[in-house]
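Exercise: predict the fold of this chain.
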Amino acid sequence: MIIRPGLFGKSLHTKVLPKAVFCSMMRLSLWLFMFTAFLSACRSGEAVPDVSDLAAQTVVRRFDQDFFALDTNNLPQGLQRLQQQYPQFMTQYLGFVLGINPQDPRSLDAIRAFLHSYRGIYDTARQVADQWLPQMEEDLQLGLRLMQHYFPGWKPEQPFEIIPFIGPMDAYEPFAIGDYGDVRTPTGVGVAMQLHLGGNASVYEAGRQGGALYDYQTRRFTPEMMAVNALKNVVEDAFPYRAAGLTLVEEMVEKGKRLYVLKKLMPDTPDSLQLGYTAAQLKGCEANEALIWNFFVKNDLLFSKEALINQNYIKDGPKTQELGEGAPGYIGLFVGRKIVESYMQKNQGTTLETLMKMPAREVFDLSAYKP
């Protein structure tokens, strides 16, 4: 998504993530997920189109390095220089990522405080960026080329800028097909490096102990998710998500449509990363697909418009309580993509452009989904 006011408008003093809300209206002991630790299959077996002739010029611009190289004794001059180097990103970074108003007389002190308190995180993130950005750039180039192939009217920014940055640890927001801190910018994507240090990074332990971060979140804070989140941002920016007035099954299908596109853009990336599940959780979902679907059908949930009920299945969380301890949160992402896959299998002449224009209810009705 393009950075907008409100996405990252937290002050530097905000340290608590909003907790996911889970309604427990249905306490049905339907079944227990059984899991193993084997990796899930990641490719559909379909041939990847030859897109080598399509343009996808990317460039990495190390805003993280330039920002933390600022001389705090000459901060106004340094900030002015950064504004010239990053004219479209700098203002958004200060305002929407750091939550700082440059016109506030206290802004320079706030920036100095951030540079001081996040220096150690930057030092760790710099090593991760040095190692992983080349692979991310390669994955992103393929995704951008495939996006043009499937949507000929869509063109990426040239060059498409990859801008690593360091933001507050609580700059972790819900989007349509995942929760993350990476953002779409007017010139490409911004990568929140503080959220890609590796799920077991020691820096996250304090957040977990303080109740600001949770295991189900930090296990996604890996370098491998940089390209996934970048392309999620591309998809969500191209197809803005609007949930108003939708039933639960329509919300699941709308999310599933976007995840289906993402899978086409990332043919070599494991489904577990694209959905945000562990490999074991995905394996359990695949094994119990029919039971998951029967739960929604038998409890008359598909056409629910009750937000407090629906969010149990389309919002992030440690688990889907009604389905058992092992069931992942965001179970609606799995179901929605399965419905879309069923539709596309039965209507193989449908292009992705047509799919994205179709009403979710029509996709559901024509999918005849019944695992």
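Check your answer against the key: The chain has a mean pLDDT of 88.
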